[in-house]
Specification:
By secondary structure, this protein is an alpha+beta fold. The protein is 22% helix and 33% strand. The chain contains three helices and six strands. A hairpin with a 5-residue loop joins β4 (69-75) and β5.
């Protein structure tokens, strides 16, 4: 792969349900490229939560495709992992959230990952942000 090629998943590589990984990561450490997040608005649809990704290599991460969101995982012990949520932006890898010794890293990182992916997309596309949250008056 040259530096001009955007990384793509190899043919046939299955999507990863990030909720199912837990501490089961290759060789005790891994990087996941987040590819899809569905964030239900209310508890009625909470069964629709999806947090999907694919294994990535450090080489892919170093190519820094603006707007990509990665999660770097390192096994802390048999049951827990250390996790770092990273945004690729403006030619840099920006750490956003770090978690240590956690068993539910996917649930803890889903909302921040969704927020930064959405915000980055909105800013890049020029879509205006709301002046304020519905039902909350501006300061």
């Amino acid at each position: 792969m040259t530096t001009d090629e955007q990384p793509t998943a190899p043919d046939g590589e299955p999507d990863l349900d990030l909720y199912a990984i837990g501490a089961d990561i290759p060789d005790g450490a891994a990087v996941v490229l987040v590819t899809e997040i569905d964030n239900p608005i209310d508890e009625v649809d909470s069964h629709l939560k999806r947090f999907i990704g694919r294994w990535a290599t450090e080489d892919e991460v170093s190519k820094i495709w603006d707007g990509y969101v990665y999660i770097r995982l390192r096994r802390a012990d048999a049951e827990t992992v250390d996790a770092e949520l990273i945004l690729a932006h403006d030619g840099q890898l920006i750490p956003v959230v770090r978690l240590a010794n956690t068993t539910d890293w996917a649930e803890q990182l889903r909302l921040p990952a969704n927020a930064i992916m959405t915000l980055h997309t909105d800013l890049e596309s020029g879509d205006p942000c709301k002046d304020h949250a519905d039902g909350v008056a501006p300061h």
